[in-house]
Amino acid sequence: MNSETIDDATSLLPTDNFGYSCQSLTTNREMERIMLVGTTAAQSNAVVWTKLVDTSNASASYPWTLVDAATSQAYGLPALTSLSLLNYDGSVIAMGQAAGTFTTPLISADGGITWKSRKHYTYPSGLGVAPTSRQP
What are phi and psi of 12, to 5 degrees? Predict the structure, then answer.
């Protein structure tokens, strides 16, 4: 296994509520962008990290990079629980909960820099939240 490098403070790595995505670049199908998203006590929004992988060259190494703009309040991804990331049509859709309620799915078409809602991405009416623990 190759040693992983990181270009920013390890204190900004997510510690909870993880989501992970891997997607081929549209400009080069031999390159993939890995996205790691999660929460940390130090940030009010989720933190987004990305890394490139060259599938045609195993010796190529790219660092994990913090997406600084993703922590902004205007278009940042909120800190969500039960976070799931879904690749769709060249973008990444984030779905999760805040305060026990499903939030509007958010989409990033720019590698995790900005997250925006789209009116046609919704959940079914009456979708409930699963209990956090099961009773015997």
Answer: -95, 5
